[in-house]
Amino acid sequence: MSASPFAITDMSTILAVHCAIMRGGTSKAIVFAAADLPENPRARDQLILAAFGSPDPRQIDGLGGADPLTSKVAIVGRSARPDIDVDYCFGQVGIASATINYAVSCGNTAAAVALYAIHERLVRVAEGPARVRIHCVNNGKQIVATVSSTPGLPPANRDVRMPVVPSPDAQVNLEFIDPAGGDTGHLLPSGAPQDEIQTTRGTRVRFSLVDCGNLYAIIPADTWALSGSEGPCELELVPGLRQEIEEIRESIAERYLQGEGRVPANAKRAARLKIAIVGSTDAAALIA
Q: How far is CA 216 from CA 42, 105, 171, 184, 231, in A?
């Protein structure tokens, strides 16, 4: 973890804000203390976008890594609830666009939030595993993180490896408390385990609409003769796939999510819907 003041400059002011740069799982986030950010949402978001260097496809003038997995923000503060240690608000920061999507959440970043809470003394820890009770502001759900730690510090044993992450690190176990229905109030928002739509290209798309942690439309990979093990670069090379995925996202949101859940009906409903392309193996490719 790296913590340092980040300076933001415009024509008239220079503002320094402390932040932490942390990895959780396969994601990297900038973590801010809620008390250090402006109360005005517009000013807050302008500060966050400047910190990431957005909008810019390379994010060259900020701390973002020009990839959705490295363009994430966590806003953390001590909770007023007696059963919760910290409140955590997640934002997916736009890269080429000046946007921050607060309609989704991120479990990977929650693991970083647990370590941040320990490092910043937001929770009391003793010898042995530490439990950090996290309230995810985005969907109102609770996450309990268990971290092996020494008193008040992140763990020293960094020997856990995970796929696609080059170096080992500490293990953080997450327990999602009653994760279903955080967005729409239902595990299966359509009321059925599987639904079907047809795209303008004539593709028949079977999908399962699932609200658990995040809102997902899970689609079999063989819909496009894929295996499900393809990486993002391979998927980008499939002619017309991204356009069809966006059409599917919009169609599902319009048909099944109008006026549902915590996001107002006049908000962009498709922004909170993730698409999962799943094959018969353990691999899955996600298009955020």
A: 28, 12, 26, 11, 19
